[in-house]
Amino acid sequence: xxxxxxxxxxxxxxxxxxxxxxxxxxxxxxxxxxxxxxxxxxxxxxxxxxxxxxxxxxxxxxxxxxxxxxxxxxxxxxxxxxxxxxxxxxxxxxxxxxxxxxxxxxxxxxxxxxxxxxxxxxxxxxxxxxxxxxxxxxxxxxxxxxxxxxxxxxxxxxxxxxxxxxxxxxxxxxxxxxxxxxxxxxxxxxxxxxxxxxxxxxxxxxxxxxxxxxxxxxxxxxxxxxxxxxxxxxxxxxxxxxxxxxxxxxxxxxxxxxxxxxxxxxxxxxxxxxxxxxxxxxxxxxxxxxxxxxxxxxxxxxxxxxxxxxxx
Length: 312
Description:
Blueprint: H1 2-29, H2 48-54, E1 63-66, H3 69-72, H4 77-81, E2 87-89, H5 97-111, E3 115-119, H6 122-126, H7 133-139, H8 144-153, H9 156-171, E4 180-181, E5 186-189, E6 193-196, H10 217-232, E7 236-241, H11 246-250, H12 255-263, E8 267-270, H13 279-282, E9 283-285, E10 288-289, H14 291-308
């Protein structure tokens, strides 16, 4: 019996080491189509590597932005700086409340914001969070919070990315990401915003099929934990739904339900009901603003903040 146990342990150990070796080789040498279960976007989809490196140089800010690409492409730090409002943008591609919770655990006490603005796209609450996890795993810290998020999501792609992250950090090879991505029309702005210089849509966006907003229960629970933590720290919270093209917005059949849900928690503004933007002037795709659109959106938001909060 003892020999059997020892033999089994040796076999398990060999299998683990062999799997880690295959994972390392796949991550280093195979093209993405040949490793579908290992997504490791080093440098990130939206300048994530620069953002998560720069955040360590910031201390206290007035406003902390969180959310998906609607956040890091929608809240321009320069507009807020011009009004003497300091800020940092911790948005990441397809970020869901599960990733938002991780980022708050890491950076809330460091940045100590007076106000947290969370961009709450329905898409983020409909997602399982698997797509957005590798971006944070590859470009931010490899720590206990990363493991906790991986176990919460419980998906092979997330586990593989987490394991590979530890090996990647152990090797210690640092890439240097440029703040300008000419191919994708991107320019990183200090504080986390990414300016897109892509031209607007040439014609109004015609949406695909209608869809119903069905909130993922895991995301809702993570969201509620976030709000509870911020309440305990007596940090003000504002939920914002960023503007998208009219037809894309209308393709959601139960927007009223979603607005009611968000409003039931804390202060919430749906800018699709506030602004009257045009596809061919203010959007470069069906749900992202051009810089012209960003400026209109931010000017309106700043005016609201100035009226609503006395600390600005």
